[in-house]
Design goal:
Blueprint lengths: L1 E12 L7 E4 L2 E7 L9 H13 L5 H4 L12 H14 L3 E10 L9 H12 L3 E6 L5 H4 L3 E12 L5
Parallel strand pairs: 4-5
Antiparallel strand pairs: 1-6, 2-3, 4-6
Helix pairs in contact: 1-3
Bound molecules: magnesium ion (MG).
Magnesium ion binds next to strand 1 and helix 1.
């Protein structure tokens, strides 16, 4: 049995446009201003995808879905994650688990955590756990200028995995 570990990080600034929806872990959170980005700016899903790509030696999210490509404008990030999973499986890997830490002053994640975890777990076909952490008022994240997320992913493979 082969094992590979990967880490992912992403950060997005809140949009000035208050009509932009906030999407986190595939869940649209009502009553909150969204994040700026070429896609839906789902910072949790992006960090998960980066961790999986890293573990499988497949580069980073930007090289697969460049923000200069109009195909990915407004893209649903869980669909990008599903595409990443196709690439990961093609190399002979399956996901053992993914664990995420979200750093944000707002919104409160706890009311949405279960739904996010179930949604992302279904996409990667393995447990995805999400923890929330405030930035204690430090820096731009502490001033609620945006949301950051880290993710760790573990892949399991066999002799054919590469
Ligand atoms: Mg991103």
């Amino acid at each position: 049995m082969k094992l590979r570990i990967g880490n992912g990080f992403d950060i997005h600034r809140f949009a000035d446009d208050s009509s932009r929806p906030l999407v986190l872990g595939g869940v649209t959170i009502p009553g909150e201003v969204g994040l700026l980005g070429h896609s839906d700016a789902d910072v949790i899903t992006h960090a998960v995808a980066e961790a999986l790509l890293g573990a499988a030696g497949l580069g980073d999210l930007g090289s697969h879905f460049p923000d200069t490509d109009d195909r990915w404008r407004g893209a649903v990030s869980t669909e990008l994650l599903a595409h990443v999973m196709v690439l990961v499986r093609e190399k002979g890997w399956q996901v053992a688990n993914v664990d995420c830490s979200v750093i944000a002053e707002r919104p409160k994640l706890s009311p949405h955590r279960q739904e996010m975890q179930e949604l992302l777990s279904a996409v990667v076909e393995a447990p995805v756990t999400i923890k929330g952490r405030r930035a204690e008022g430090i820096g731009g994240l502490g001033r609620s200028e945006g949301i950051a997320c880290t993710a760790s992913a573990l892949l399991i493979g066999n002799e054919e995995s590469s």
